[in-house]
Write a structure and sequence with these properties.
Layout: E1 3-5, H1 12-15, E2 20-24, E3 26-28, E4 31-32, E5 39-44, E6 48-53, E7 57-58, E8 63-69, E9 74-78, E10 83-88, H2 91-94, H3 98-101, E11 110-113, H4 116-124, H5 129-143
Antiparallel strand pairs: 1-11, 2-8, 3-4, 5-6, 7-10, 8-9, 10-11
InterPro entries: Abitram (IPR039169), GCV_H/Fam206 (IPR033753), Single_hybrid_motif (IPR011053)
Pfam families: GCV_H
Protein name: Protein Abitram
């Protein structure tokens, strides 16, 4: 039920041989994703229930971080999921290459926990790997 936010394999930072210069979780003067402090407890019954306190709530359009490349381009990475920000990956701050070398594992950006009642509709709206590849193929053919 958790969502791990990563760069898509078609993202320009993964496709164009760019070098990542900087990752910034400071979204505005008053908002840093690094200030997200989650505390709480979990109870074990038939379901695993999380009680989170202090987690920042995100909308689909909430920026998570900004990534700058050595060629001066800056990319804002958005949550794309409504839910609570559980964790940001601070390891990519000291080792930005993880985003490119291991984007779907150690190079993740953040972990978001959607509301339980919304999680089913979120997963139903996701593309399969095959559907995603078809979208990429259409984009490439229309760009040529």
């Amino acid at each position: 039920r958790i969502c791990v936010i990563t760069l898509a394999e078609a993202h320009p930072l993964l496709q164009n041989g760019k070098t990542i210069k900087n990752i910034n979780y400071q979204i505005s003067a008053n908002c840093s994703r690094l200030q997200n402090k989650v505390s709480g407890k979990s109870k074990r019954t038939r379901l695993f229930i999380f009680q989170m306190q202090g987690a920042q709530f995100l909308t689909e359009l909430a920026p998570l971080c900004r990534i700058s490349s050595s060629d001066g381009e800056e990319y804002t990475i958005y949550s794309c999921i409504r839910g609570r920000l559980i964790e940001v990956n601070e390891n990519i701050l000291s080792n930005p290459a993880l985003l490119q070398e291991k984007p779907s594992t150690e190079g993740y950006i953040a972990v978001v926990l959607p509301k339980f009642e919304e999680s089913k509709s979120i997963t139903q709206g996701l593309l399969t790997q095959k559907e995603y590849e078809e979208v990429l193929l259409k984009r490439r053919s229309s760009a040529s």
